[in-house]
Amino acid sequence: MMRTVTAALALCLASGTALAYDQANTARLFADPGVRQMTLATAQQSAVVMNNPCPGAQATASADVAVFQPLVFDAAGQLQTGIWRQQVTLAGCGVTRTLNVLGWKQAGQAIAMGALLPGGTHTDVLLQRDAIQQVDQLVKITPGATEEGCAREYVADTRFVDREALPAPGGKSPPWREVWTLQTCTKRIEVPIRFIPDATGTTITAGPQNAVKVTPLAK
């Protein structure tokens, strides 16, 4: 799913144009029952939900929508192009989760959606793709983090920690820190990550290794 979403987002970004923000049509879009239902259904495809099923959980689409590419509407108020992220709160079985859904629309095509990583991460899908590669590499060399015979590993949560005061040289915004929590068959692994916007993009640093926290899951 992440690979599909990443490819679609890259294509949309390459072909998009920025127009003025249309508040009224944007509000109608996210109030539309069909869009809302699609958002809630996509949130259920998140790996953390699929690995922790709770049939009675209640999902609520949040008003928290981040627009990555401006939402462009035609004269009739129909969405033509755009990319956005909407949060969904899922509560049930004693746990409340924040799930993130990426939606996008290309000209001449239907609205499409995909599940992003859960939690409070400030990253978009492209940064998530690059960061998870570093996280996986770090986990593999961290003592006690790998689990022989376990084929299950997924990101269970992400947490924004803080943002630094000043940008790096050439950066448009200051670096920030997050902690990503992975879960395997019997372990929870917390990995600190630093994201550093610079003149060429964003540098990602996972670790250091001695800051990775491995905790056995309660039986």
Task: Supply the number of helical segments.
Answer: 5
Q: Report the helical percentage.
A: 25-40%
Please give the alpha-carbon distance between the first and last residues: 30 Å
| Elements, N to C (H/E) | HHHHEEEEHEEEEE
Low-confidence stretches: 11-20
Compute the CA-based radius of gyration: 18 Å
Largest sheet: number of strands, sense, barrel closure: 5 strands, antiparallel
Q: How many β strands by DSSP?
A: 9
How would you sum up the global shape? globular
- Pairing-aware structural class of the strands and helices? alpha+beta
Task: Give the SSE map.
Layout: H1 2-15, H2 23-31, H3 33-43, H4 47-50, E1 58-73, E2 79-92, E3 95-105, E4 112-115, H5 125-141, E5 154-163, E6 176-183, E7 187-198, E8 201-206, E9 213-216
Antiparallel strand pairs: 1-2, 2-3, 3-4, 5-6, 6-7, 7-8, 7-9
Can you give keywords for this protein?
single chain, 219 residues, alpha+beta, five-stranded antiparallel β-sheet, four-stranded antiparallel β-sheet
Description:
The chain is built from 5 helices and 9 strands; from the N terminus they run H-H-H-H-E-E-E-E-H-E-E-E-E-E. With 219 residues, it is of the alpha+beta class. The strands form 2 sheets. Strands 5, 6, 7, 8 and 9 form a 5-stranded antiparallel beta sheet that branches. The chain is globular, with a radius of gyration of 18 Å. The two termini are 30 Å apart. Residues 11-20 have low confidence and may be disordered.
